[in-house]
Design a protein that fits this description.
Layout lengths: L3 E4 L3 H14 L2 E7 L6 H5 L2 E6 L10 H11 L3 E3 L9 H9 L3 E2 L4 H8 L1 H10 L15 H12 L3 E9 L2 E6 L5 H16 L4 E5 L5 E9 L5 E13 L2 E7 L8 H17 L4 E9 L6 E7 L6 H8 L3 H9 L16 E8 L1 E2 L5 E2 L2 E2 L3 E2 L6 E5 L6 E2 L6 E9 L2 H14 L1 E2 L6 H8 L2 H4 L5 H4 L2 H5 L19 E8 L2 E8 L37 E3 L4 E5 L7 E2 L4 E7 L2 E6 L4 E5 L7 E2 L4 E6 L4
Parallel strand pairs: 1-2, 1-4, 2-3, 4-5
Antiparallel strand pairs: 6-7, 6-8, 9-10, 9-12, 10-11, 11-14, 12-13, 14-21, 15-16, 17-20, 18-22, 19-21, 23-24, 25-32, 26-28, 26-31, 27-30, 28-29, 30-32
Helix pairs in contact: 4-5, 12-13
Length: 598
């Protein structure tokens, strides 16, 4: 077993891996960006090292810097968590060359499954059913039109070959929408995965998203831990997951069939470690199709841990250390029902717009069968630079009905002030008849009036007193990039001084923006304001242009998502105080749209 392990990630998954290391007797090494200096994963680890700047490319994606820290700290292994470098074959190869164990599958498996077109081809050749569509990249829009017209038909999904997690996934319901879908998927593929290649799939109407957790070791053992139903999604990103799927959706025979498909898929690429085979279950025919394989631990692994009793993270670390799986397929038994709600900093009443900010008072629920995986505390900043997830709330009980009641109780106990979250949305959704019937709830997620009723007013952050009462303080300092905690005993602080144990008072973190061009929103029906904080990715209109209600005025990138901002009325763009690359805050003016002259 390793003596020291570096976690190349942040947030709740970094804390989760650190806890697994503690239980295995492994020293943990955290890395952090400038924005994460005071994050829980930093203070929770045995050691912590500064990576670099705020942007992912300057920090959590810096392979050379991460490997250098691994050498300096003496870490014998690196756990990538999920996101960032978790499914980066080049990173896995670089770890191997540096003599550091990558906690995950071999680079060959990541590469094979990282390209969705290659994965579809491999699965087809292995006899695994795939969603009808292309197995080769589609070179351009003209080729896409011909393939859709001759082979697939509408609706069609356009997907980035290197995509995942809902990124690079667009749907064209009819021919007039194909151009925007093709360009959008290619753009997101290039943006998030450095690969603009796309392919096409038949878009299944209202399918169930059912995935299977697998574990494999280097001794020839591959097992599955049953399925998870992740059908409740918005913009192809998951909101609620449960394990197992509702009994009337997946019975024992189907569970055995899709489990076998998952195991065969893993064997086809000589997989090792924890992974997930995702699939679509047709609501009409009951057919199950391979969708993709995630070559990493999943966000929603927690619900499978709750029902199977298997610690997936620790199993992955043991496998990376050369050990065999601690459990055989015949020993796997699912008990009870688990539900996970993703507590994101998003505003459901405004089309799930990202809602970054600073957390005020914070208190997690507890009690029987309740688990919270979080990477925040009171005072933590939820920044637009990273994913909007604040925490994962997971509950277990003997059946789905009782697990739902427990989740509703836990959601009511959860207190997060200062930011808008999805807690209210989850309470409304899990209390609905659609959830009780085990539906995909797409009607609710697309019902703007229902979502507007969920508007939440964030409470103000907790105030601080003007003077400190303690003369003993703890500061965090960095020496040659390594973090140390230093206790200082001295005179009390004067009013307005920096508060001990937190970020310096009075230090602002401005968002790069439009400077004097930008004005705060003013009342009036002509003004289109930004519903979120982020960066302007594209401005497809110009001043003086006539637009119709619903036309896209700007695309804002926030928390790793592209958000299209539509015109709120028809008219002429009289003012357009934004440019591509600008930073905007919630409430900033994007455009002024006036009625056209009579």
């Amino acid at each position: 077993m390793f003596s020291k392990l570096l976690i190349a990630n942040r947030g709740e998954i970094a804390v989760r891996v650190i806890r697994a290391c503690d239980e295995l007797g492994i020293a943990s090494v955290a890395v952090y960006s400038e924005l994460d200096r005071d994050a829980p994963h930093v203070t929770r680890a045995s050691e912590a090292y500064l990576l670099g700047g705020a942007s992912p490319s300057d920090g959590y994606l810096d392979i050379e810097r991460i490997l250098r820290i691994a050498r300096e700290s003496g870490a014998g292994a690196i756990h990538p968590g999920y996101g960032f470098l978790a499914e980066n074959a080049s990173f896995a190869t670089a770890c191997e060359r540096a003599g550091v164990v990558f906690v995950g599958p071999p680079a060959s498996a990541i590469e094979a499954m990282g390209s969705k077109t290659r994965a579809r081809e491999l699965m087809r050749d292995a006899g695994v059913p795939i969603v009808p569509g292309t197995v080769d990249p589609v070179p351009d829009l003209g080729a896409a039109r011909r393939i859709v017209d001759d082979e697939i038909g509408y609706p069609v999904a356009v997907k980035a070959a290197g995509g995942g997690g809902g990124k690079g996934f667009r749907v064209a319901l009819k021919a007039s929408e194909l151009k925007a879908a093709f360009e959008g998927a290619a753009r997101e593929g290039e943006r998030f995965f450095s690969d603009a290649t796309v392919y096409l799939e038949r878009y299944l109407p209202d399918p169930r998203h059912v995935e299977v957790q697998i574990l494999a070791d280097g001794h020839g053992s591959v097992i599955h831990l049953g399925e998870r139903d992740c059908s409740i999604q918005r913009r192809h990103q998951k909101l609620v997951e449960e394990s197992p799927a509702p009994a009337w959706i997946v019975d024992e025979a189907l569970r055995e069939r899709i489990g076998t498909i998952a195991v065969e898929a893993a064997r086809a690429v000589d997989y090792r470690g924890a992974g997930t085979v995702e699939g679509l279950l047709s609501s009409d025919s009951g057919e199950y199709f391979f969708l993709e394989m995630n070559t990493r631990v999943q966000v929603e692994h927690c619900v499978t841990e709750m029902t199977s009793g298997v610690d997936i993270v620790k199993e992955g670390i043991r496998v990376a250390a050369g050990e065999a799986l601690s459990i055989a397929q015949e020993d796997v038994a699912l008990r009870g029902h688990a539900i996970e709600c993703r507590i994101n900093a998003e505003d459901a009443s405004h089309a799930f717009a990202p809602a970054p900010g600073t957390i005020g008072a914070y208190a997690e629920p507890s009690g029987p069968g309740v688990r919270v995986d979080s990477g925040v505390r009171a005072g933590s900043e939820v920044t637009p630079m990273y994913d909007p997830m604040v925490a994962k709330l997971v509950v277990w009980d003997v059946d789905r009905s009782q697990a739902t009641a427990r989740m509703l109780r836990a959601l009511a106990e959860y207190r997060i002030e200062g930011i808008t979250t999805l807690i209210g949305f989850h309470r409304a959704l899990l209390a609905s008849e659609q959830w009780a019937r085990g539906e995909t709830c797409r009607d609710l997620l697309e019902d703007k009036s229902w979502l507007r009723e969920l508007a939440e007013k964030p409470a103000a952050a907790a105030s601080q007193t003007d003077a400190e009462t303690s003369v003993e303080r703890t500061y965090s300092v960095e020496v040659s990039g390594r973090r140390f905690d230093v206790r200082v005993i001295g005179a009390g602080a004067e009013a307005g001084d920096a508060r001990a144990g937190g970020p310096a008072a009075g230090v602002s973190k401005p968002v790069r923006g439009v400077a004097k061009k930008r004005a705060q929103a003013v009342a009036g029906s002509d003004t289109l304001t930004s519903p979120m904080q982020g960066n302007v990715w594209k401005v497809p209109v110009s001043q003086g242009q006539q637009v119709a209600e619903g036309d896209v005025v700007a695309i804002i990138e926030a928390m790793k998502m592209e958000n299209e901002i539509p015109a709120h009325k028809s008219g002429v763009i009289a003012s357009l105080p934004i440019s591509e690359g600008d930073g905007v805050r919630r409430g900033d003016v994007l455009a002024v749209i006036e009625d056209p002259p009579a």
